[in-house]
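User: What would this chain look like folded?
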Amino acid sequence: MRVDDPETVSAAPDGRPAEAQPRWRRDFPVDGPADEFRSRREFTGLLLLTSLAFAAGQLWIVGLRAFKGAHGSSPVLDVAGVDELPPGGMKVFEYPTKADPCVLVRLADGSFVAYDRRCTHLSCPVIPRPAAGRLDCPCHNGHFDLATGAPLAGPPRRPLPRVTLEIRRGRIVATGLSVEGGRRAEAS
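Assistant: Here's the prediction, encoded as C-alpha cells.
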C-alpha cells in the first residue's frame, strides 16, 4: 500500500475536506477505502468457507437419502376397493405419512391414478377434474394432466409426485411414490 495512492487515503464519502464535515463524522471517521479493502488471503478464505458450506450441504443430502434408503422401502397402504370408485370417481387419502395428502382417481378407461395432492408450485391442494382430464390448482390457476401428472398450464413447472399403485385381490394398494412417471393400475 502506497501513501500517495488516492485509493488508500482516507476521505469522506462526499469528498469534502475534514474541516467541512459535520461534527459526528469528525468524531467517528470512517476510512471508506480501508473498510472495503479485502486482501487476496481474505478473499481466498471466504471462497474456501463458501465451498466447504456447499460441500457439507451436499453431503448432508446424500447422507439423508442413504439413510432413508437403508431404512426400508415405501410403506404399503390399502387405499380402496376396485369397485368403490366409478369412472370419474375419486378418493382422498394420506400416503406415505398422515401429513401427505394424496388423491386417487379412476379414469374413464377404468384405470386408476394417484398423486400427491400438493401443487408443485406452492403446495396448494389440487382438485381433480376427471371430466376435463386434468387436476386444477385454484390458488394460481395451474393445471396438471390427469393421466400423467405433467404440468399443462400455469406457474407449476414440475409434475405432481405420483403414487405407484397395484391391484391386489380387488383392492387398490399404494406401494410407493415417484417424482416422475409411473404406471397406471389397470382394473381387471
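The mean pLDDT is 85. If you want, I can go into more detail on any region.
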